[in-house]
Amino acid sequence: MKDHPKEKTEQEEKKEKQEDPETEKDPAAGEQPDEISLLKAEIASVNDKFIRLYSEFENYKKRVLKERVELGKMAAAELVLGLLPVLDDFDRAAISIDKASELNAVKEGIRLVHLKFRNLLEQKGLQEMKSEGDKFDTDLHEAVTSTAAPSEGQKGTILEVLEKGYLFNGKVIRHPKVVIGQ
Predict the structure, then answer these.
(1) Separation CA 166–CA 119 (nearest Å)
(2) Is the separation of the CB atoms in 121 and 138 below 8 Å?
(3) Using only C-alpha atoms, what is the Rg of the chain?
């Protein structure tokens, strides 16, 4: 039996509609292909903006990291620049030790250099921790050893500081090594 030519066309149309749903034409959706192309264009635009924004953010992160490293280098350079006069004083003291005839003058010179060095570090934010006689605090102190407390009231207190501790801008950078009373 031969198929009717009209039937073949309808079968072919059904097949085409199944293969490509975008080509399906509905009288109510006559503008659908235009809407789809507009939506595709909008998606492409938003995607492009996203990629540009992401790239810009990645560049920002790299720039901030580089600036942070440079800032750290400049802070270190500033500290070293402040230490140079102290180094000069130590150099002069080393030369004067060999030529000095009076020991008290050398001692006084070394005390002055020490004071200058300490003052410079304090100006930069360093602060010595005073711990002797305080209650032992594991967050602030490092117990090296313990010994019998001379009195009952000194149990759990710091009897001796073996190595000083320091704060830098209010944060502990080196815990004092201490002996605690038991």
Answers:
(1) 14
(2) no
(3) 40
**Residues 83 and 159 grouped into a single domain:** no
- Residue with token string 């600036």: 67
Domain that holds residue 43: 32-124
> What token pair was written down for 13?
């149309």
Rounded CA gap, 33 and 30, in Å? 8
Q: What is the pLDDT of residue 63?
A: 96
Residue 37 is which amino acid? S
179, β-bridge pairs: 145, 160
Task: Report if residue 119 sits inside a domain.
Answer: yes
Longest alpha-carbon distance in the chain: 134
Which residue type is seen at 64?
V
What predicted TM-score, i.e. pTM, was given to this entire model? 0.58
Convert the pLDDT of each residue in 39-85 to its tens digit: 999 999 999 999 999 999 999 999 999 999 999 899 888 888 889 99
128: closest CA among 97, 173, 166, 88?
A: 166
Domains contained in the chain, number: 2
Mean pLDDT value across residues 149-169: 92
- Considering the domain boundaries, does residue 6 fall inside one? no
CA dist list (Å): 154 to 42, 137, 147, 178 = 77, 14, 11, 14
